[in-house]
Amino acid sequence: QVQLVESGGGLVQPGGSLRLSCAASGSRFSSYIMGWYRQAPGKQRELVADITTSGMTNYADSVKGRFTGSRDNAKNTVYLQMNSLKPEDTAVYYCRATGIGIDYWGQGTQVTVSS
């Protein structure tokens, strides 16, 4: 069982920044592909970014150039740095760990972008 705990969400004005963190339990964090997803009210959950075991990242077109994903395997933590935030970035953000035989989600953290 892998537990994922997100933190760092909150209310921010348009153009502002937030950094989300997701801490994972267990000893096999480095073997997991980590993903950040978001779900806005009335919309489907969508992939925002994923970070491979080697640290390579892929991003949704809507966040390219604004969001940066990273991981620290020594701390069992994955991050999502979000800059130039827009109202349409408002959503609950989730992290996900996938690997051979595993697929776990965190409980989510709310990000609200509003003036």
Report the sheet with the most strands, covering strand number, pairing sense and barrel closure.
7 strands, mixed
Shape: globular
Radius of gyration: 13 Å
Oligomer type? single chain
The assigned structural class equals mainly beta
How far from one another are the termini?
40 Å
Stretches where pLDDT is under 50 for at least 5 consecutive residues are: none
Spell the H/E element sequence. Answer: EEEEEEEEEEE
Strand content: over 45%
Mean pLDDT: 96
Helix fraction bin = under 10%
Give the number of DSSP strands.
11
Q: Helical stretch count? A: 0
Protein traits:
0% helix; single chain; mainly beta; 52% strand; four-stranded antiparallel beta sheet; 115 residues
